[in-house]
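ok here's the first one, seq then struct tokens
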Amino acid sequence: MQRARPAPADYHLISVMANFKTFEARVVRSIPLSDFTKHLELEVEGVNHFGYVPGQWLSVKAVTPDGEEMTRAYSIASPPTDNGHVAFCLNRVEEGFMSNYLCGLEDGATISFQGPFGDFTLRPPLRDTLFIATGTGVAPFRSMLHWLLANKERHQDHEFWLLFGARTEEDLYYKKEFQELETKHPNFHFLPTLSRAPETWKGLHGYVQEHVGEIVGMRSDMHAYICGLDKMVKANRDLLKTLGWDRTSIRYEKYD
């Protein structure tokens, strides 16, 4: 989605100072997720370990053909690892230089970036949590969920729901991956919903906000993380507030 420190050993994520050093990263692989979206995996060069907190983003720099330096922010779509790899979930924007530039990179190409930045991160104490995403807004949740579910001590006493909205099944990025996580972890529930579902679709129909109530019920003791277009974020924030949620239990990141 267009948006350092080692990953902590337990849930207690503390704030991270923004790192303004410029890094170079090499493209390890570029995988189409749909006709207009790519998964771009990068290896940060010149460091033994590149640390960040799940949910943070990087500021990517590039120079346009007419010599203008451009920067764009992208959420990290991968959990912290020891191999220095980070990933982006990129959606091509019509006439958008940076998204098309990045989506067009081949294996071995290099990019420059600064970061990590951002505080859209999991906040302690951990509670049962609803993650709500549309489109490439699923990127930070891929990072968070892989990190959470990789260690039983982090997640064993809590339930997690990923309510992921898209127009068509093709736009449910990382669908198979989330289904495998759901099979492996009984406390993780993957709930894809399509606004333009065919008759053969067996999942949820409509928009994500139409299903929040049936997930949370009368509860207000949970956390909610919301990421996607401004209109969707606002609709879900307003809904949760009408259900009695305190605003401190609702964290969000939106994009145009």
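and now the second one, same deal
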Amino acid sequence: MLALWQNSGNGLYAQQDRDQAPTNYHARLKVADDGSFAFSTVRPVSYKVPDDGPAGDMLRVLGRDAWRPAHLHMIIQAPGHRPLITEFFPEDDEHLDGDAVFGVRAGLVLPFSRAVDRAALPAVLAARDSLPMPVWSATLNLALAPA
């Protein structure tokens, strides 16, 4: 099982924005027997964490800004393996080197490529034939640790 969540185009998560449905930009996917998966979503955007109050004071003292780079959260679970909770970041985001919460790691940064040909998209992608082209595409390879 794979659970995904991300912010919307206004930079807010569903629980922060009363105009969004509670599960907006949330998904649960069943992966194939070989562990592969494919999905489509909008590209996440960079956003500022709240910088009022103590968190903002701390960021200012540290000389850091409040930006988080665009990212997509994931929880991956499989029988006989330890769950993995992670996120990944597009390599072209301007805030990778100054993440307000220090979440960026080299192994979590992925190249996003522009796909202009549907044939380049995974055959198992449910929306493959209906997506407006071009689209951004990324490949993520994960390995879960045994339980």
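notes on #2: The beta strands are 2-5, 26-29, 47-48, 67-68, 72-76, 84-90, 109-110, 113-115, 135-137. The chain has one domain: 2-137.
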